[in-house]
Description:
heterodimer, A: 5-stranded parallel sheet, 5 helices, about 40% helix, B: alpha+beta, 7-stranded antiparallel sheet, 7 strands, about 15% strand
Amino acid sequence: MKVTKILVVEDSKLVRMMYDVMLQRCSVVHACDGQEALTRLAEQSDFDAVLLDLNMPRMNGFEFLSVIKADPRWSHLPVVVVTTEGHDDFAQRAMQAGAAAYLTKPFRAETVLETLEKLSQATGA
Amino acid sequence: MINENAEDVVEQLRKTLELARQLAERLESTLPRVEASTPPNPQLIAELEEKLAAYKVDQEELTSRLVDTEHKAHRLMNLYVALYQLHESLKPEAVRSAIVDITVNLLGAEHFALLLYENDQRTSDVFVVESSGRTALDPLCMGGRYIGGDPLIDATLADGTLRLGPTESSQVLAAIPLSIQEHPVGALVISKLLDHKPAFGNEDRDLLNLLAVHAGSALHAASVHVKPSKRNGRPAQGDERGSV
């Protein structure tokens, strides 16, 4: 499955715009926090991947990850965490919670694109 | 539009690289047949081997150019996005928020402070209008004002020159001037980067220069926009310039 529709869960306007520019070949849907992201998932069921920030208001990335991995409707969705938190314990926690990859900010666009490409290959593009 | 042009160039390089790869493959498949032919043709074999070697060199060069071009395109993308965010709104709080966003998410700063002269005058007080909460500046701040004392910051506030540290007399990593037509109105001070970012890289220089040139004017434009509306007794109108 090629990654063509991505849910971006990110409270930074600048980072959301960066994703829009770098992912022009994909369909990108935005949410400003975990709560809004759950609403988007309920509205649209055909996402191929999630790009997830950790530090967000209302519902942070760990809380959101926990909810979707426990829900059979969305547990299959590969989640790439993209965060300013660079400590190993955060990365470990995210991977144990079901994240498919963990990237740190500031990021290189190439890194995000390569990660999404690997996800496509892993899910059988 | 910038990204579309960059993408076109990258796409052209990819196609050329693919063509070079196909040519090399055809040569590689042809070579064994020529080597096995009777009578043997050593001259032809040598020519084909030479061409194959040349195509492989071209492939490596094209791959390197592709990687380099993609990287440059993405650096331009960062600058475009940063510039857009700085000038998208004429609300002072939105401009300050954009500066903070760039500082954290593009430069990777953990501790920083945004200092502004009270009246755009170098003789006025310097206020800390945004900060990451806890910075190396804290001992030099009182009542929300920066009272001076860090040589790197003081020099940048005085002459509007971008300075990188640390130095013997300052632990600050960067003092980025905020200027309006070369007149300093404040500075963005970065005192610590995120732990996983050891230092500023060459790519960060473009962003630091962009902030030095544009952040001050963006803040000034926002403050000028607010003042007339307040004089008329009307609240400032929403003024987003449009979306991507």
